[in-house]
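Record Enoyl-CoA hydratase/isomerase family protein, 249 aa.
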Amino acid sequence: MDGAVAVLSLGLAPYNLMDKEMNEELIAALEWARDQSARAVVLRSSLRHFSAGANLDNMIREADESEVLDWGFVETLEAFSAFPAPIIASVNGVCVGGGFELALACDLIIASESAKIGSVEVTVGLQPLMGAVQRLTQRAGAARAREMVLLGRRYPASTLERWNVINWTVQDESLDDATMVIAQELAHGPTVANAASKRLVAIAVNQGVKAADEAMLEVQRAVLGSADFRTGVRSYRENGVGMAQFEGA
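=>
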């Protein structure tokens, strides 16, 4: 923990190759962050690269034994979506295949300018297995999603920022500091309201704007009853905009 920020570091040398065990560890790590009352989460790599994708040796071995790869993909995506606090992917080096899908499961993505990012599964005869197709379609539109998953190219972070796939590109040496600035800003925000906003975005994306409109009254109950709402109003009256010190309750 860094204050109220849970920092989850991938460190499976040399390339953070993903498999069932890693997915299980990611779910457990989010459960730990929830137990710590984390108000923001950073997902990063402690290695030169964020992730080079799936462990293909394990994958081909399991594919020879079963028609379905039971690596907990859906469970991992659900754990990221259901986590109440914002999750930031801090991407360095190579981030492709399943590693890219892991970043796409986060709420926000910040990447170093030298990062090379892409959905490259087609180069080994696969389609993305952990949600990249639908999440790229959400973020960048169907045309860009088709381009990325059908051609399997790696793109510079600046291109994907322009396409609305990632949020920010920063200089390599600034990645860690820039990530923590954003994470701390989120962690010092109104945690209950942030969770409500995250939930409404998910409803709008998955069920449509009308469903999100219909959910607003229920979602706002916790926000209107929160101490942070009262703190924010009091601070606004006494000190002006943006000066509230929220406690996350």
